Every structure is written in structure tokens, then in C-alpha cells.
């Protein structure tokens, strides 16, 4: 064994092997998804002894050069006086070091948008690169499964983020010799078998915790629930309209907030393809001068996808054109960053000495054209509205569903409305700063992609400067208004300074700004998602039957609140419960095993937390597979590279590996609990929600409804005045059951609520997961 310490004073690594205290064996503690620790003692046995410095780099290797530990001192050594030696006083120095990631733990991440639709490995590499660019080797960081969303906040250290990212994919990370690794749990597998000649029965300690589960309730986050449409009519005086439900709120943290400081683009925000050096940063703006002359060759794109879910505002910047230009500004691409793959963006084309601006939709120019004027500035904005907030379900893992076979993770289809507008600012006319923008496009793309690449600029030949870029979620309400004898037009729910016509001033109040007062008989529709707690209860009938005996019904229940991965929807809660029940299908075990390095399981040279251990000891009725959680390595014979290993292991039921619970539970109102499902019903129980249901006509006594889809064979649409009590056994608040797509409902008051769900002929009948909620507030 050899131990070196680099005190970072210019002398390089110093060999301290001869100074090791023979009375105190060095010890390494390796923990699953946490920094490893090394503790050892040194004796100042000569006048040349150099006291290790706080923060010094430590390397512990075997004689063959293989690494047992690398890291950094986390504190100055503690000192113990031992007496006077032959030439000088003798001291013992107690040294403690943590593995390499402690270097990353000393840095703070910037405030940034959550990662979306990125692999676990991509997220880990990105965080490490942002903290210490180019310092750590990351080729051994495997991609693993896609994480729907992960918030990398500056409040947590790198090792905490790494642990959560690893847990989300049932994986393990470690840092050694300047390299990061991320691998699936059980990538290396070993066994302890009592038939092995080197097996030590007395060194194997086993316990079997009394953990049994077959009925799991999972509580998640607040989720978007009912598909709400509120209908109002203007009286020429009122600016305030009261929504029927409190809209679901998305995070208000900006996804991009860029004002181009400094002299180069921020590599943690932008990916740049610039073969002709067309891009530069100067005068607090992105300067674009030229391009590759080809579509998609010179681009500045956001480092991660933009999710086309909920409501998003993308301000592509205050743009000044200096010469005729060709390219795309603010392009949102499903596929490669080329015009043919552009879902929505602003196409710029030359027009004599000026440029034309036109909406680019599904790769084709669409709608009106604006021609630029010399000296004017142009603010480009895109609004995205989707009734589906999350376009990808979270993935959950278990011992039976490891990396590559996750539960959940399905894409969520949705239609998406795009609104593209341009504001023409003439510096010589101050009123142009607050003048309404010109809408170039306002329509819905059916079955739109869930995620897109956002390219601020795709320059074929561009001559312009861009002063800022800002992308954020906005209130999740699509408000549209139709003047008498006119079609519906989107009203932006935004601040007045950002071009909004209305705002949600409180949780249920839709307020129009004075200059946008709805005129008499104007029709107003507000579409949004209601809110409620995500929760699901899943049972394993076979597991219950196996435990039922006498007066015991066999049910073993537990309530879990998800933290990592987050359960953002009811469907996520169902998949999380499935993963928990997966691990409950076999008994819980935990234990430890001590052995010399010569006799490690499977003749291994070394073992690490996250390795799989098969225990095959029939004489103790112990045949199971567990995961190594903690490994202590005591270097009792350093000269001969002999170590004493203590391996602690547990099954997933004894200690979960694929998720982390929150510290507290949330009370869920009983009327909001969904049906109790069996494991076989998850994924095929609920019928489609009536997301496109709408009111088509209102009279003083009736309301005409189009459910948006025709019921299938043996299906119908149930309508109630409250969003509970669904089922044939309760008729107290039922307004009717219909087998047609369109039908008439009674109107009994000025303000009326209708809740719709699809149902079928099953026994008991299945229903939609969420209601379509139609609210009418019209004068009688």
C-alpha cells in the first residue's frame, strides 16, 4: 500500500507511507451515493516531516497501482503529543479525507431552470461541468433512463444532487481518481455461498425486518386536474370576472433570463454552432454578423429542451437589424435545427434594403408580413398554451424494474396553441413602446411535439443585434374573447408592460386592464386546469390473499409521500406505488459480512456500494439478492495489501433504492381520493378525459354542450353539478347521462357549473380520470 499527499504547495505528491502509524489501521468508509471517507494516522518521525495541509489531495493505492481512495482533506489534522523522540518531539496526526466530489461540493450552482427530458447521466455531467469545467473525467457516467424533470438548485451540494439523480434511476455514483462514474445498481454482481470453501459462517450476520406491504397509498405534489372552461359575457362596464376554480400554478422561475453581459456566450445556457464566427457578445447584446450561408449551420440554442406544456412565454429579444438578413429568430424545432423542422418561429428574409418578418409554422411561412424600417427595433414574442402541463410522466424503478425497464415515463399527447407577435418600436415615437403588438399567428397545432429545441438564432446570413432573451412560465389560463359578429382572439394573461390585456390578480379573479375593457356582449372563454393533490392507492390482491388467515384480512398498508422522483400527477403516484409493491413481493433482508480481501465474494479485487450480492445459505433459510449499501475497508496489513472488508447489505424492501420519501405527509380530503386500484388495473383503468368539451350555445333556460368526442360503444357521458359522487349508485347531483357527443342541459341560474366524465359498461363502470368542468356566467 502507498499513500501520497499533495499539499498543493508546489512540491507535488509526497509519499507518506513510511510515516503511517502502525498502531492505527487506516480505514475507508464507502457509502452508497455519498462521499467516501478515509481516516488514518501519521507519526512525525523525522525532522523532514511535512504536516498535511487542510485541503491537501490524498491518494491511497495498492502496490499494483490500483486506487482504493482519492480525495481531499476536509479539515486540518488533529494533533496528539506522544513524547520526545531521539531528535525532536513526536506527534500523532489524525487525518480525515473525503472523496474527490468534495471539490465539487465547495462550489455553488447558479439559479437555473429545472432539467427536463434529460437522461440522469446528462444531468450529472452538466452539473459537474457547470461547477468545475473540464476538471472531472465523465466518460464513465452512463446516460441511463430519462428524468422527466429535475431541479438543480444552488442550496444543495453536488454530492446531494448526484445522490438524488442516481436514486431517480436506481443507480449509484462515485468519484475516484478525478473521474465520475454513474452505473445502474447491480452492474457488478457477487455471491456469498455456503458451499464456497472460503465462506465464513460466523462472519455473516442476517436479520429479517418485519416489513410486509400489499396496499400502498402514494401522495404526490399538487397536480393539474379538471379541464376547466369558464364562459362570461361583457356588459361594457365590468373588468373583473370570477373563475370557477383556482387555476393550477406552474413555477415562476425563469427558464432563461439572458441579457448578454461580458464578452462571450454563457456555455451553461447556450450551445453554439458557429463555423464562420458570426456570433459575438458586445455592448450587452448578442451580435450576429453573417452566417454559414446554409440552414441550420450557424445557431445559438438553449442547452436543454423546452417543454411544450402549460403556458410559456418566450421573449426572443429586442432586435435591431443593420442590413437585410436571412434566417430564423426564436425557432422551436422538433428534430434538427433546420427550417423544415421548425414548429414555430419568426422567418427573416431579405427585401431590398430591408428584411421581411413572417411567422414560420411547421416549416412554412404563414400569415401577414412585416417589413423592417431603418433604425426601428423589433421585439419578438411567442406564447405557448397547452392544456397538458406535463408532457412526460416520471419514471420509477424497483428491483424488478431496473434501468431500462422503468415504470411510467410515457409521453403525454396534447394540442398546443402558438401565438406569435412582433412589436415595432420607433425610437422617435415614444408611444410605440406601449403600442399593441402585431399578431402574426394565433392557432392550434394538433398533437404537437412534447419537447422542442429552442434556437434563439438560426443564421443563414444575418446582420442584427439581440439585447435580451427571456423565457418563463406564465399563468396557466388561455383567455379568448370574441367581439359581436367576430371570431375569437387570444387575450394575453400578462403584465401590462409585457403586452398583456388581462391578469389573474388573485387566485380566482380574471381582471382586464382598463384599456382592454370587454365591450357589451363580448364573449369571453377562460380555459385552464384546476388543481388538487396527486394521490393513488394500489393494492396487490395476491399479496393480500397470501397473508389472509383467520380474522386477519391480510391487508398490510402504508402511506408514502414521494420526494425523489417527484410524483407530479396521479398517474405518477400509481407507478410509484407499483414500484413499491414490486419490492414487497419478496421478504425484507439486511445483514453484514466480514471477510479478508483475499476471500472477497466472487474472487473480486474490490467491491463498492451498489454492487449486487446474492446470499445463498440454505442452512439458514437465506436465499435472496441484496445490494451493498456500506463498505468498511480496514487496512490491517498495508505492506502485503491485505484488507479486512465489512460489507453491509439490504434488499429494496428493507431500504428503498429507487425513491426517497418526503419528511412529512399531506392530508388529502376524502372526497378527492381516487378509486382503489389493483396492480393489474394500473394503466388501463381510466377512460379518456373530455379535454375538448365546450359550451356551444347558452339561453336563459338551457345550455348546449359539445363533449368534443363521441362516446364509443357501451359508453356514455355523465354530467353532474359537483365533481364527486361519480357512479350509477348516486343520482343526487346528476343532470343526465348521454350517449351522444352533443346534448342539452338545463340552466337554472345565472351562474351554473357542469362536470362531465366519460363512462363505460363495465361492472362497476370505469370513468375518465379527470372531469371536464364547464362554468357559465351569463345574464338570464
Keyword list:
single chain; 780 residues; mainly beta; Jelly Rolls; Immunoglobulin-like; 16-stranded antiparallel β-sheet; 6% helix
Describe this structure in words.
The chain is mainly beta. The chain starts with a strand and ends with a strand. The radius of gyration is 32 Å and the shape is flat. Helix 2 (120-131) packs antiparallel against helix 3. A hairpin with a 5-residue loop joins strand 36 (477-482) and strand 37 (488-491).
Secondary structure layout plus pairing:
Elements: E1 2-6, E2 13-15, E3 27-31, E4 37-43, E5 57-61, E6 67-73, E7 78-84, E8 89-99, H1 102-105, E9 115-119, H2 120-131, E10 137-141, E11 146-150, H3 158-168, E12 171-176, E13 179-184, E14 189-193, E15 204-207, E16 215-233, E17 240-242, E18 256-258, E19 270-273, E20 279-282, E21 285-290, E22 299-302, E23 306-307, E24 311-321, E25 326-333, E26 342-351, E27 354-361, E28 364-371, E29 377-386, E30 395-396, E31 407-408, E32 416-425, E33 438-445, E34 451-466, E35 469-473, E36 477-482, E37 488-491, E38 502-506, E39 509-512, E40 523-539, H4 541-547, E41 557-564, H5 570-583, E42 590-596, E43 612-617, E44 622-637, E45 642-650, E46 660-661, E47 677-678, E48 694-698, E49 702-706, E50 715-720, E51 734-738, E52 742-746, E53 751-760, E54 772-777
Parallel strand pairs: 10-13, 14-43, 16-41, 16-54, 40-47
Antiparallel strand pairs: 1-2, 1-5, 3-4, 3-44, 4-8, 5-6, 6-8, 7-8, 9-11, 12-13, 15-42, 16-40, 17-39, 18-35, 19-22, 20-21, 21-34, 22-34, 23-34, 24-29, 24-34, 24-35, 25-26, 25-34, 26-27, 27-28, 29-32, 30-31, 32-33, 36-37, 36-40, 38-39, 41-46, 42-45, 43-44, 44-45, 48-49, 49-52, 50-51, 50-53, ...
Amino acid at each position: 500500500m502507498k499513500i501520497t499527499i499533495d499539499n498543493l504547495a508546489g512540491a507535488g505528491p509526497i509519499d507518506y507511507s513510511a510515516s503511517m502509524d502502525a498502531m492505527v489501521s487506516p480505514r475507508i468508509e464507502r457509502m452508497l451515493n455519498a462521499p467516501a471517507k478515509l481516516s488514518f494516522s501519521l507519526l512525525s518521525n523525522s525532522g523532514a516531516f511535512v504536516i498535511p495541509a487542510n485541503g491537501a489531495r490524498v491518494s491511497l493505492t495498492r502496490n499494483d497501482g490500483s486506487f482504493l481512495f482519492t480525495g481531499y482533506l476536509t479539515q486540518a489534522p488533529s494533533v496528539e503529543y506522544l513524547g520526545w523522540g531521539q531528535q525532536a518531539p513526536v506527534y500523532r496526526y489524525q487525518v480525515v479525507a473525503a472523496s474527490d466530489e468534495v471539490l465539487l461540493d465547495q462550489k455553488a450552482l447558479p439559479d437555473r431552470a429545472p432539467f427536463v427530458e434529460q437522461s440522469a447521466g446528462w444531468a450529472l455531467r452538466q452539473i459537474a461541468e457547470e461547477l468545475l469545467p473540464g476538471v472531472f473525467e465523465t466518460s464513465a457516467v452512463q446516460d441511463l433512463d430519462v428524468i422527466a424533470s429535475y431541479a438543480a438548485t444552488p442550496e444543495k451540494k453536488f454530492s446531494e444532487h448526484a445522490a438524488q439523480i442516481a436514486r431517480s434511476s436506481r443507480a449509484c455514483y462515485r468519484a475516484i481518481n478525478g473521474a465520475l462514474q454513474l452505473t445502474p445498481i447491480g452492474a457488478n454482481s457477487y455471491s456469498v455461498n455456503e458451499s464456497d470453501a472460503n465462506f465464513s459462517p460466523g462472519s455473516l450476520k442476517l436479520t429479517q425486518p418485519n416489513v410486509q406491504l400489499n396496499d400502498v397509498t402514494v401522495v404526490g405534489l399538487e397536480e393539474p386536474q379538471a379541464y376547466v372552461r369558464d364562459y362570461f359575457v361583457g356588459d361594457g362596464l365590468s373588468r373583473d370576472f370570477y373563475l370557477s376554480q383556482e387555476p393550477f400554478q406552474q413555477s415562476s422561475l425563469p427558464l432563461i433570463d439572458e441579457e448578454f453581459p461580458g464578452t462571450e456566450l454563457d456555455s451553461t445556457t447556450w450551445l453554439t454552432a458557429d463555423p464562420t464566427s458570426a456570433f459575438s457578445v458586445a455592448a450587452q447584446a448578442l451580435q450576429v454578423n453573417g452566417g454559414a450561408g446554409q440552414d441550420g449551420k450557424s445557431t445559438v440554442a438553449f442547452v436543454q429542451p423546452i417543454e411544450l406544456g402549460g403556458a410559456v412565454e418566450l421573449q426572443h429579444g429586442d432586435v435591431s437589424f443593420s442590413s437585410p438578413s436571412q434566417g430564423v429568430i426564436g425557432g422551436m424545432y422538433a428534430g434538427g435545427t433546420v427550417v423544415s423542422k421548425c414548429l414555430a418561429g419568426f422567418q427573416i428574409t431579405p427585401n431590398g434594403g430591408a428584411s421581411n418578418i413572417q411567422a414560420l409554422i411547421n416549416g412554412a411561412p404563414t400569415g401577414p408580413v412585416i417589413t423592417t424600417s431603418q433604425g426601428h427595433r423589433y421585439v419578438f414574442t411567442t406564447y405557448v398554451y397547452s392544456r397538458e402541463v406535463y408532457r412526460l410522466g416520471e419514471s420509477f424503478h424497483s428491483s424488478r424494474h431496473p434501468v431500462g425497464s422503468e415504470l411510467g415515463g410515457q409521453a403525454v399527447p396534447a394540442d398546443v396553441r402558438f401565438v406569435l407577435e412582433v412589436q415595432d418600436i420607433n425610437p422617435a415615437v415614444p408611444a410605440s413602446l406601449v403600442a399593441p403588438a402585431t399578431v402574426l399567428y394565433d392557432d392550434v397545432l394538433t398533437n404537437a411535439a412534447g419537447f422542442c429545441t429552442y434556437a434563439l438564432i438560426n443564421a443563414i446570413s444575418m446582420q442584427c443585434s439581440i439585447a435580451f432573451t427571456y423565457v418563463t412560465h406564465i399563468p396557466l389560463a388561455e383567455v379568448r374573447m370574441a367581439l359581436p359578429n367576430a371570431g375569437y382572439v387570444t387575450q394575453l394573461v400578462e403584465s401590462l408592460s409585457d403586452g398583456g390585456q388581462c391578469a389573474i390578480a388573485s387566485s380566482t379573479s380574471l381582471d382586464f386592464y382598463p384599456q382592454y375593457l370587454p365591450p357589451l356582449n363580448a364573449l369571453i372563454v377562460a380555459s385552464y386546469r384546476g388543481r388538487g393533490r396527486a394521490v393513488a392507492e394500489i393494492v396487490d390482491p395476491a399479496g393480500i390473499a397470501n397473508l389472509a388467515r383467520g380474522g386477519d384480512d391480510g391487508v398490510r398498508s402504508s402511506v408514502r409521500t414521494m420526494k425523489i422522483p417527484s410524483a407530479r400527477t396521479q398517474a405518477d403516484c400509481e407507478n410509484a406505488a407499483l414500484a413499491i409493491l414490486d419490492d414487497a413481493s419478496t421478504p425484507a433482508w439486511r445483514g453484514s459480512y466480514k471477510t479478508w480481501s483475499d476471500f472477497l465474494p466472487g474472487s473480486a479485487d474490490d467491491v463498492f456500494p451498489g454492487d449486487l450480492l446474492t446470499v445463498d445459505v440454505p442452512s439458514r433459510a437465506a436465499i435472496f439478492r441484496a445490494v451493498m449499501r456500506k463498505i468498511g475497508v480496514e487496512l490491517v496489513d498495508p505492506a502485503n495489501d491485505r484488507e479486512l472488508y465489512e460489507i453491509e447489505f439490504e434488499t429494496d424492501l428493507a431500504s428503498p433504492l429507487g425513491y426517497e420519501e418526503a419528511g412529512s405527509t399531506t392530508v388529502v380530503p376524502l372526497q378527492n381520493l381516487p378509486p382503489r386500484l389493483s396492480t393489474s388495473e394500473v394503466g388501463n383503468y381510466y377512460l379518456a378525459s373530455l379535454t375538448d368539451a365546450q359550451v356551444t350555445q347558452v339561453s336563459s333556460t338551457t345550455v348546449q354542450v359539445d363533449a368534443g368526442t363521441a362516446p364509443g360503444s357501451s359508453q356514455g357521458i355523465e354530467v353532474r353539478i359537483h365533481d364527486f359522487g361519480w357512479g350509477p349508485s348516486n343520482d343526487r347531483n346528476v343532470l343526465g347521462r348521454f350517449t351522444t357527443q352533443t346534448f342539452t342541459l338545463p340552466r337554472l341560474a345565472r351562474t351554473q357549473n357542469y362536470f362531465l366524465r366519460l363512462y363505460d359498461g363495465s361492472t362497476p363502470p370505469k370513468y375518465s380520470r379527470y372531469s371536464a368542468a364547464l362554468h357559465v356566467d351569463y345574464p338570464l
